Amino acid sequence: MKNSKSLLIAVDFDGTIVENKYPKIGEPMIFAFETLKKIEEIGHRLILWTYRYGKELDDAVAFCEERGIKFYAVNQSFPEEEFDPRVSRKINADVFIDDRNIGGLLGWGEIYQQIINEEPEHLKPTKKKGLFSFLK
């Protein structure tokens, strides 16, 4: 990765990590777990961001853990955050990976390439301008 700062990456479950068979758990999407492991290995933090809650959420987390993925947080921006888990809400992340993106879900290989090869705008260094730089 071009920048040594880690990204906080929110990942949907149904239709993204696994085929959409909600409330059941579908088959893993091709290369999903391999890609998520590589993303973690290079230092990024993963958040499971899903509509699931209760037993269905517990089952999804266990499914991922059995395949080597332990999320930094689940349906929250950071592990200690408190909120009502029955309410779907937006979380704070640098990147969102979801099958509901405009254009659909990219292949997991393409997702990996974009994450390791692109430096997000908010991480790029900016030139600070003086207060009156517009006068020049």
UniProtKB/TrEMBL annotation:
InterPro entries: HAD-like_sf (IPR036412), HAD_sf (IPR023214), Phage_SP01_Orf1 (IPR016769). This is Hydrolase.
